[in-house]
Amino acid sequence: MNLEEINHNELPQHIAIIMDGNGRWAQKQGKIRVRGHEAGAKAVRKTVEAVAKLGIKHLTLYAFSTENWSRPKTEISTLMLLLVRSLRNELERMTTNNIKLSAIGSLGKLPNNVQKELQEVIIKTQGNSGMHLTLALSYGAREEIEQAVKQISLKVKNNIIPVESIDETIINEHLYTQNLPDVDLLIRTSGEVRISNFLLWQIAYAELYFTDELWPEFDEQSLQRAILSYQKRERRFGKTSEQLN
Length: 245
Ligand code: IPE
Ligand code: IPE
Ligand code: MG
Hints:
Layout: E1 14-18, H1 22-28, H2 33-54, E2 58-65, H3 73-96, E3 100-104, H4 112-125, E4 132-139, H5 141-157, H6 168-173, E5 185-188, E6 207-210, H7 220-231, H8 241-244
Parallel strand pairs: 1-2, 1-5, 2-4, 3-4, 5-6
Helix pairs in contact: 1-2, 2-3, 3-4
This protein binds 3-methylbut-3-enyl trihydrogen diphosphate (IPE) (2 copies) and magnesium ion.
Residues 19-24, 64, 68, 79, 190, 215 line the site of one 3-methylbut-3-enyl trihydrogen diphosphate.
């Protein structure tokens, strides 16, 4: 399989990935879970490069969920350490590749050093006009919707907006993803066929792609397979095939 087979005129504008299976990858190699997360960080780097190379504008990666706070403390601290390390190591590469970094989630719950490192990279890459990479950290879609409802309710209560004005656009504007288009292609690795509280609103019409590959195994070829599958589908958005043709 090579790049030639992908139709460059019909690329998804926004790819989101549930990067799952680090622990199982490590287990398969007889290693501790942490090694899986380290290998997962390498897969992130390769994927970011591959997506940017294709000229795809938006990539959103699910790196840590609100539910992941229930994991053993030691695993959480390793994940946070790896995050800080990756942010530090990748800043230069992001700058060279013109990548802009954002983060979504309840970021205030992250350890201070992670918040600091994250803010630094976000600020330093803010002006970059190439790919827009969004990390979902301490992210939960239900929590995102909950805070949006609270913000909108307050605006109604304080007579800033009338109830009648609440529509999809207003709701979009109060989500963490306010500056992002809807997801076109959602990929989940590791064989699990579930959404795990990721971007519930934004995937309303996304094409879903599930692969048995574990996240550390995911590479450029895996990405190409996912995009090829996406390009074979007919996105009807409620219409009939005839209407589209
Ligand atoms: C994904 O891999 C990474 C995070 C959720 C942070 P897992 O750690 O969930 O790996 P498995 O699912 O246990 O194999
Ligand atoms: C989903 O993976 C969250 C991330 C990839 C960050 P999990 O491994 O936490 O999902 P569940 O618990 O198996 O659904
Ligand atoms: Mg998992």
